[in-house]
Structures are given as C-alpha cells and as structure tokens.
Amino acid sequence: MPTFFLDNPLGLVSAIAIPILVALYFWQRKATSKIVPAIFLWPAENRSSNAGAKWRITRLPLDFYQFLLAIILLILAAAVPYVVTNQKFPPLNIILDDSMSTQAGKTKEKAIDHIESVARKFPQRRFLVYLAGHKPTLIHDDSKLPNLAQIWLPGKSNADLKAALAFAKNNCPSAEYIIVTDHIPTFEIPEDTAYVAFGKSFNNLAIVNAKRNDDKILLELANAGDKQANATLIVNKAQQQLDFKPDERKSLVVKCDETIAEIHLKAQDDQLEADNYAMLVNDYKPPVNVKIHDAIPEKLKNAIRRTIQTNINLAEKADAQPELIIEPASEDTPHSASRILWYLPADENAAISDAPIVPVTAHPILDGVPLGNLIWPANHNQQIPGTTLLAQASTTLLAIQNKQNNAFDLMINLHQSLGNVHRNPAWPTLFENIAQYIKANRPGPTQANYTDNESIQLNLHSIDATKITHATQDSKTTINTDNSKKIVLEATNGLHQFTTESHTWNVAVNTLDPEESDLTNAASFKKDIATQIKFRQATKSNIAWLLALLAILVLIPRFNYP
After folding, report:
1. Is it true that 92-200+522-539 and 204-280 share their CATH fold?
2. β-bridge partners, 468
C-alpha cells in the first residue's frame, strides 16, 4: 500500500485530488452569501489579548469532515483491489515467442507495449519471463518487469510454444500465463492462459535451405506471397539476378572455392532480414588413408584395393600417415591408428556353415550391411577377442575392440578365398561404414554446418587440449576441457571458430526454416485469461466494498439535514 501511489499513476492522481477538493471547499464557503443578524455587522475592533492563546483556530463544520472522510474512503475502495502482495495475487508467467518471424514488421514493439500495459495494472505482482525457443528457458523472475527489448532477442528458426507453456506450468503452478507471438494458436489454450498475437501478413523472400558438399552449394530460395519479386543473390563476391513468380521456390547449385561462403539474398522492402542470410563452411573431409600389410594374401589384397579405388572416402597413399591399417592377426603390430586384424584360417580349418549370420551387438559399422545370401568361410574353432558384432551359430565372424584416442581394432574371421563376401553388397557397405566411422571420430567438430536446433559437438580424442578458444562475431571465450574428450555447445546463429594449440576449426550455424519464413500465416489474435476475475475477486475486493459502504454511511447524516 505505501508504494501504490508511486507505482500507479491513477492512484497518484486520485491522491492529489484530496487537497484540491479541500481548497475548493474553502473557496466555496468564502464565496457563499449568508444572512446574518444586523448586530453582527456592528464594527468591532480586534485586539490582541495580553494573555491566553495567540493562535485562533477556525472550527470547520461537521459536513466538511464528512465529505473529506467520504472522499478518502472512496479512494481507498478503488485502490485496494490493485494493492495486492506478491503472495496474495498470482504470478504472471510471460512466454515470449523468440522465433525469427517475430522480427517482421512491428510485432515485437506492439507486443512489448501490450505486456507493459498489463504489468502497469498490477505492479506489485511477481513476473516470470520465458523464451520459448527449441527448449524453453526462464530468463527473469522478479517483482519488477525487465526491459523486454534487451532480453527478447528473436532469432530462432522456430519456437515450441506448447512445450514452453508446459514448462512454465511445471515451474510455477497456480498462476496466470500469457503467450506472446505473431500467429494464431495451433493448440488448445487453457482457461488460465492468455494468448496474444501481433503478426501481420507480408510477402517475403527467403533462403529456406542451404547445404554444402565441398565446393558445391545447394540453395533453396522461396517467394512466400502472392506477388512477383526480384532479388540479387550474392555468394561472397559473385552476384546473380533472380526473378520470382508468386509462391515460387527455386533450387540452385552454386560453386564456391572459398572455405567460408557468405550468402545474401538481397531484396527491397523485405520485412524479415534474418532469413536473407546464410553462412556455410566447406565440409570436405579428406579420405581415410589405408595401409595394407605386405603379409595380406594377394587375392584379399586385390579385393581390398578395388574397394578403395571405387570409394571416395578411402585412399591408399604411401607418403601419408595411415588412419587404417589392414594386417593379418598373426602380425598384430601395435599402432595408435585403427586396424583391421584379419584372422586367416588354414585351408583345412576353413568351413562354411548353413547357419544364418546375425548381428549380435548394434554398431555404426554394421548400419545397412545386408547379411542375406552370404557364403562366409571361417574357422569355427577360432577364439576372437573383443565385442562380437557378427556371429554364425557360436562362431564369431566380426568383433571390435576399442583403443585409446577413439581408435579401434576390428577383427575379421574370414578365409582368404572370401567365399562370395567380396562380391556381395555387404563388402563395400562394410568398408564405407568403417571409413565414415573413422571420419566421425576425427578430432574437431562432427560436422561443419549446423542448424540452431542442434548442438555443436567437438571431438578431442586424439589431441591433448586443456583449453579451447571459442570466437564468434560478438565474443571470444576460453573453454576449459577438464580432460574431456567431447565438448557439447549450444548452436547459436553465425560463424564459430575453435582454436587449440595444434588445430583450428570453423563451424557455421544457420537459422533457416520454411514455415518461419512464410509470413502469410502471421496474424493478429487475442484471447484473455478466463479465470482472472476469480483471482482478483479473491484478493481484497470484499474490503473495497466495505470501504465504499462506509463512505455512504458517513454521508447519510448529511442527507438527513433539514
């Protein structure tokens, strides 16, 4: 109550009215003509007495005090429903849609004005502010509303409002909730939740998808609207003019030799700039270098080399450090690189079984490997170490053993005649999976380009890095790895550079989404809280009615004057 007149402008105005009414009362009494006996008109000389009180107190009539008390009671009756402690009035949970479409037009400005007007009515209550995003986040919890323009930074590719509402209800039950967005609801809104949208339909040109493979960039561009449009596509320094029909999508392949490609779809009078930009880093990863041991039998060696020659993810370079060594298990030369250890049974020990070949342990190396119609000659008495991946009855055909720095030893129980394995689709698929598995576990980011609903993952398996410098366009921080071999970071829009003592990696994050770029779905909508009247009546409305009744009772004697 003491801060009501400071926080609420209407309360302050009503308080100022009291001295004004008192002044008007005195002015009215002074200006009013009165009939008095003539004896009171005789001249009288006012003299100061030598004793007694020097101050003369003007005694006001009873009706003055009646009116003054009635005014004060009426002001208090009007103010009491708004003067509620944080514990008495339910908190207000504000859920902000921070998807990039809310940047279009004046959606954000109108939404902030609305929230502030709601907050001014009940300045004493508790405010909780959430950003919906891909994963809801509580960013404010206080009795004062924050500066929303500073903390509400739309830019996500999309926002899950339903999940954000569920998160707010779980975090702060028995409260009021308000969702602020730019489109009509796509799910049922509960009674204790207000839903306001300040969107407006616009035509919009956008980059809705962007992929890169080495020096080739695949772009999908869209004109979301019923009007023709033209734009300039800029990829680094190269430019080309594009014309769009209404509701048209274009797919383009652009060549870019630079490591980092900055893409800008430049259009006039575009209401949403966020989806006109993209950045892609060259995701080329050199093939896995393979070394074949001289002791490998010639037929097997030729089959492996034919596979290497037809697979762009494998290479055999004598002058480069090998990442995969293929050698007989009998050699078993210790090495930090990954190895395929080939168990080559003697002719008299090799046998073919009619039992089906089945996977025992799920592993990326087995993904998509067809196991039907395989003739696999093996030593069925051979003991194979490691975790069994493939088996035929009780015989281990393929096993894996992990080593330090995320390398591995893959053990294969297969006779050099190979049966029909090298002529079956299982053979190239197996080698492709091995190459991809080694690539995925190289030090550095698992991929060069991310969307903002993914997490950036850095592998540090084969390097000693206690600290990593993380630089973006706006900041530069140091990450302490704590000897961890994998770092996971939130993917925020823009270019990220990670630097260790021996490596530098670039990663691009883009916020592209066809639905968010389609501003024809934006609209205005308003749904108030259905239960808010019950909340307010449950506070101090009874006291307000009592004060109003007292004001009337105070005036009753005045009405009864003759």
Report:
1. no
2. 479
Q: Is the pLDDT of residue 537 over 60?
A: no
For the segment 65-93, what is each residue's pLDDT rounded down to a tens digit? 777 787 787 777 777 666 555 446 788 99
What are the boundaries of each domain within the chain? 92-200+522-539, 204-280, 288-440, 444-510
Check residue 313 and report its DSSP letter.
T
| CATH class of the domain comprising 444-510 | mainly beta
- For the stretch 454-494, pLDDT in tens is 899 998 877 777 889 999 988 899 998 887 878 899 888 99
Query: What's the chain's average pLDDT?
Result: 85
Grouping H, G, I as helix, E, B as strand and the rest as coil, residue 507 is strand
Under a CB-based contact definition with an 8 Å cutoff, are residues 410 and 365 in contact? yes
Give the number of C-alpha atoms closer than 13 A to the C-alpha of residue 381, restricted to the C-beta side.
6
Amino acid at 203: N
The candidate with the shortest Cα–Cα distance to 153, out of 233, 231, 98, 106, is 98
Q: What is the pLDDT of residue 545?
A: 72
Check if the beta carbon of residue 335 is closer than 8 Å to that of residue 321: no
CA–CA gap between residue 280 and residue 297 (Å, rounded): 45
**Integer Cα distance of 185 and 195 in angstroms:** 8
For 309-318, the pLDDT digits (tens) are: 999 999 999 8
DSSP, res 99: B
**What does the H/E/C string look like for 517-542?**
HCHHHCCEEEECCCCHHHHHHCCCHH
Residue 178 near residue 194 (C-beta atoms within 8 A): yes
Tokens of 369: 């490997």
Domain 288-440 class? alpha beta
Q: What secondary structure, in 3-state letters, does 247-298 show?
A: CCEEEEEEECCCCEEEEEEECCCCCCCHHHEEEEECCCCCCEEEEECCCCCH
**Homologous superfamily, domain 204-280:** Immunoglobulins (2.60.40.10)
Whether 137 contacts 130, CB under 8 Å: yes
Q: What is the pTM of this model?
A: 0.70
Model confidence band, residue 1 (pLDDT cutoffs 50, 70, 90): very low
Arch. (CATH architecture) of 92-200+522-539: 3-Layer(aba) Sandwich (3.40)
Measured in Å, how far apart are the chain's first and last C-alpha atoms? 39
Closest to 401 (Cα-Cα) out of 459, 318, 352, 338:
338
d(CA 503, CA 36): 105
The string of DSSP letters for 422-482 reads: GGSTHHHHHHHHHHHHHHHTSSEES-SEEETTSEEEEE-TTS--SEEEEE-SS-EEEEE-T
The CA distance from 432 to 413, in Å, is 19
If residue 379 lies in a helix (H) or strand (E), which one and from where to where? strand 378-379
**Tokens 């930090």 belong to residue:** 336
